[in-house]
Amino acid sequence: MKYQLLHINNKINAIQTGLLRFHGKSIRTSMPVKVVTGDGGVLNCMLSGDRPSAKLINKKVSLIQRYNDDYLYVSGKVFFVGEHDLVSIHIAKAFWFIRKVKGRVTWLENKCIYENAERNIA
């Protein structure tokens, strides 16, 4: 499992940007973020612009990243909101997909999957 997390973290750090999504009271919100991974299955995101980041504590969020034919989907829970709209997230699950094409048929193929079994996050 640690190998999968390391592999996905390297890809997240290479892409560096993404879209952070969460559900509000009745609205789904998406925000562009800059992303860096931390130790022990943690993502650190810098929110762009003036956002209500303090309201994100203990919310389930997802991060979506895309670069060429690579797609990353990470779900987790916000555990810390710091100064300058820094948001830290415990990773619950992470998926790395690659888009494959054969003729006119296109599909996503799993490259790497990580699931955090140690913490009850999601």
What does this structure look like?
The structure is a single chain. By secondary structure, this protein is mainly beta. The chain contains 1 helix and 7 strands. The protein has a 6-stranded antiparallel barrel. Strand 6 and strand 7 form a beta hairpin. The longest helix is centred in the first third of the chain and has 14 residues. It is globular. The mean pLDDT is 88.
Q: What structural class should be given to the helix and strand makeup? A: mainly beta
> Distance between the terminal alpha carbons, to the nearest Å?
18 Å
Q: Order of strands across the biggest sheet?
A: 1-2-3-6-5-4
> Helix count?
1
Task: Sketch the topology as an H/E string, one letter per element.
Answer: HEEEEEEE
Counted beta strands? 7
Q: What value does the average pLDDT take?
A: 88
Q: List low-confidence stretches.
A: none
Global Rg: 15 Å
The residue fraction in helices comes out at 10-25%
What are its keywords?
single chain, 122 residues, mainly beta, six-stranded antiparallel barrel, 11% helix
Give the topology, please.
Elements: H1 2-15, E1 17-23, E2 28-37, E3 42-47, E4 60-67, E5 70-81, E6 86-102, E7 105-115
Concise synopsis of the structure shown:
By secondary structure, the protein is mostly beta strands. The chain has one helix spanning 2-15; strands at residues 17-23, 28-37, 42-47, 60-67, 70-81, 86-102, 105-115.
